[in-house]
Amino acid sequence: MNDKGHDRLSGKVAIITGAGSGIGEATARTFAREGAKVVLVGRREAPLQANASAIRAAGGEALVIAGDVARAADVAAIIEGAIEKFGRLDYVFNNAGIQGKGAPIIEMEEESFDELIAINLKGPWLMTRAALRVMIPAGRGGAIVNTSSFLSVAATVGTSVYSASKAGLDAMILALALEAGPHGIRINNVNPGVIDTPMLRAHGEAIIPPLAARAALGRVGIPQDIADAVLWLCTDEASFITGQSLLIDGGFTIPGPR
C-alpha cells in the first residue's frame, strides 16, 4: 500500500471506466492509494495497461479489461471479470464518455447522435444494471458514481446532443437512487466544469486562459479535483447522499457579468 493512502477503501473493489487518461486515470490511482482493488476499463488497452503498471508500482492491485460500455456483451464481461478476479464489487465509476462532434444541429449527422447517446447515457445505464445485479444480492451496499457535466445545466453552440446525454444522466439517477437505496447502494453524479484533460487540450492550448478567467476561482480544474470528489462520494463520509448531481466547476457557471 502506498504510504500516501489512508486505507479508506481497504478490501473494496472498484470498476472505473474511461480509466486510461484524464479523470478516470486520476480516480483509479486515487482509489488504489486508498486500498481499493481497481478494475480499469476502456476501449484502448495500451493506456489502461500503462495506468495499471503505475498503480502496481505504487503497491496497488489493478486489473485491465478492454471493452466498450455501450455493448451489453462487453459490460457483462467486465462485471464477470471483476468478480472472477477479486470476488466482489463495491463501487462503480461510470466515467467513460465522448465529447463527439461539436456542431450546430443542422450540421450534425444522425450517427453522431447515436454514438454520443450510446456511450454517454446507455453505457452508464448498462454498467449500472449489470453492477446492481451483482451488488444487490451480495448485500454489502456500495456506491455508483457517473461522470455528468456542467453542460447538463448550461450550454454552448454545438452541444445539443452532448448536453442532452449528460442531462439524461442527471435525471436517470433519481429513479436509480430510489431503486438502489433500500439495498444500501448510493448513486450520484459528479458534474465537472472545465477540466484540464486531453479532451480539453484537443481544442488547443489557447482555449485554456479565457476559460480559467471566467471561473470564480480563476483556474480550470485538474483531474484530481474530480477524483477526490468521486472518492468522497464512495466513502462513509457521504453515507447519507444519494440521487445528487454535484457540480464541480470552480464557479464557472455562476451567472452574471465578469
List keywords for this structure.
258 residues, globular, Rossmann fold, seven-stranded parallel beta sheet, 7 strands, alpha/beta
Order of helices and strands, N to C? Answer: EHEHEHEHEHEHHHE
- Helix content class: 40-55%
Principal-axes geometry comes out as globular
Instruction: Please give the CATH class.
Output: Alpha Beta
- Supply Rg: 18 Å
Could you tell me the CATH topology label: Rossmann fold
Indicate the CATH architecture: 3-Layer(aba) Sandwich
Strand order of the largest sheet: 3-2-1-4-5-6-7
The percent range for strand residues is: 15-25%
Number of helical segments with 4 or more residues: 8
* Category from helices, strands and their pairing: alpha/beta
Number of strands: 7
Question: TL;DR?
Answer:
Belongs to the short-chain dehydrogenases/reductases (SDR) family. The protein is of the alpha/beta class and 258 residues long. It is 44% helix and 15% strand.
Description:
With 258 residues, the chain is an alpha/beta fold. The mean pLDDT is 95. The chain has one domain: NAD(P)-binding Rossmann-like Domain (Rossmann fold, 3-Layer(aba) Sandwich), CATH 3.40.50. 45% of the residues are buried. The protein is 44% helix and 15% strand. It has a 7-stranded parallel β-sheet, with helices on both faces.
